[in-house]
Amino acid sequence: MSQHKVLFGFHAVTVRLKTAPASIVEVLFDGTRRDARMKQFLERAREAGARLIEADSLRIAKLAGSHGHQGVAARVTEVPLAHSLDDLLDGLNVPPLLLVLDGVTDPHNLGACLRVADGAGAHAVIAPKDHAAGLNATVAKVASGAAETVPYFMVTNLARTLGELKERSIWIVGTSDDAPRTLYQQDFTGPTALVLGAEGPGMRQLTRKTCDELVSIPMQGAVESLNVSVASGVCLYEALRQRSSAG
Ligand SMILES: C[S@@+](CC[C@H](N)C(=O)[O-])C[C@H]1O[C@@H](n2cnc3c(N)ncnc32)[C@H](O)[C@@H]1O
Fold it and tell me: In this protein, which residues make up the domain named RNA 2-O ribose methyltransferase substrate binding (predicted)?
């Protein structure tokens, strides 16, 4: 059992049904839910050949480790999205767009960052092993399926990894609310790693020093900074906008 991972919630389980149905060991569903969403979900699960087990809400909550399961949870095997960051970068035929999270430890924030990384077409999310949230069921639920599509690499030494990215001519753009240049002055069309900092203190000093540029998101009101997942969205979508108009 321990080599299995658990996904819960409609989005997270549906994405796995779509992307890697063979990795699903079993799906537990709440048979008392007879609404259209559940019916559609069960149809998809049957089409994908998943083993369906009717269970009560409490049993599903036990498996999920949360009551926010919406009546579905799945036991799945791990599916590596990419073997290594190097493999992933070697296989790209477009300029890489990477999201680096330095110290994001809240699973809800990590989930939201993965979701927006998927939406904006980032190729991977990178975080330091000793200073980050791991990929757990809560992250997968909040990510709404993006934990299944965006490779998440936890690295031993973030500064070293950023150095290696630089050697690949990837431009390291850090973000901080006190940076004098705004992200709208930054060219994101080339190979780019966007670095965001921790919920409280922002990027660590060494990470900050390793960046090639620092940019800020203009703040028009009274608050000084945005939530890290919101800031990730603003930056990644600016990169997507520039890349789309560069054609
Ligand atoms: C809650 S903020 C931390 C704020 C902290 N004062 C700092 O020094 O960045 C978490 C992360 O979101 C990003 N962020 C939030 N607001 C930002 C802004 N206005 N400009 C640039 N980055 C921002 C940065 O990466 C920041 O490290």
Answer: 6-82
Q: Do both 51 and 93 map to the same domain?
A: no
pLDDT at 1 over 60: no
Q: Which two tokens stand for residue 187?
A: 């060219």
Distances 167 to 86, 106, 175, 191, 209 between C-alpha atoms, Å: 12, 31, 21, 12, 16
Residues lining ligand 1, CB < 6 A?
A: 175-177, 196-197, 199, 202-203, 216-217, 219, 225-226, 228, 231
Three-state SS for 95-135 is: CCEEEEEECCCCHHHHHHHHHHHHHHCCCEEEEEHHHCCCC
Q: What is the 3-state secondary structure (H, E, C) of 75-88?
A: EEECCCCCCCHHHH
Regarding an ipTM greater than 0.90, the answer is yes
What's the number of domains the chain is made of? 2
Which mutation among 108, 175, 230 tests ligand 1's pocket best, with the greatest number of atoms within 8 A of CB? 175
Note the pLDDT tens digit of each residue in 80-101: 777 799 999 999 999 999 999 9
Q: Which residue range(s) make up the domain with 172?
A: 85-246
Same domain, 191 and 141: yes
